[in-house]
Amino acid sequence: MLDLTVVTAAILAGGLGSRLRPAVSGRPKVLANIGKKPFLTYLFDQLLAAGARDVVVCTGYLGDQIRMIFGESYNTLRLNYSKESTPLGTAGALRLALPLFNSNPVLVMNGDSYCDANIREFCFWHGRRQANATLLLTKIFDTERFGQVKVDVDGKVTDFKEKSRGQGPGWINAGIYLLNRDLLEEIPVNRAVSLETEIFPSWIGRGLYGFQSEARFMDIGTPEAYSSAQSFFTTGLSR
Fold first, then answer.
1. Residues 147, 148, 154, CA angle at the centre, nearest 5°?
2. Which CATH class is domain 4-135+175-209+221-230?
3. Does residue 71 contact residue 79 with C-beta atoms inside 8 Å?
């Protein structure tokens, strides 16, 4: 089993958050308040509960605000920062931060979504399959905003279905990944690259797996989703 005390966690917090700006102006979206604390703290707390110790925050738009608020630590988490000078996309941001990762694999989390999954179980599942990359998947009733991820009986990813109307229920990418360094090293440098649309589809057949979880999921990518985030966290979280 992977020991999370020695696994570097990376949080993708560099998005422009264009759709959320009407609700959260002048701040990166990971600092959008849910209750009385920034959304990013919920991700930090989830990592703490799982036993993580080292976190790299991949920042971009207004990223200096994140460092000013949290500094070099959060509780027992050691925080490091990788700042992109121009938008590099989710994959490009990871490639830029690669020298700061001290483990193989790296645990990656999207900074604008939360899945109430068992991170330790996720790591155990990844290790048992000797996967090169594993996406945490969760099932929702309406996948229109997210697209769907298809896996076979062994958990290997077979296809990504693009976002479209009327897709109905299905398994979606929940924004939590375990990714081996050798795959991260293949990401092109110094240009914008998307994990979701460019990199993950190219890894099908190369040890890319999907761990299916029934855990609750939410994101703050739109004002509507953001407005419902408060109730998500006040209804209780399971660990």
1. 160
2. alpha beta
3. yes
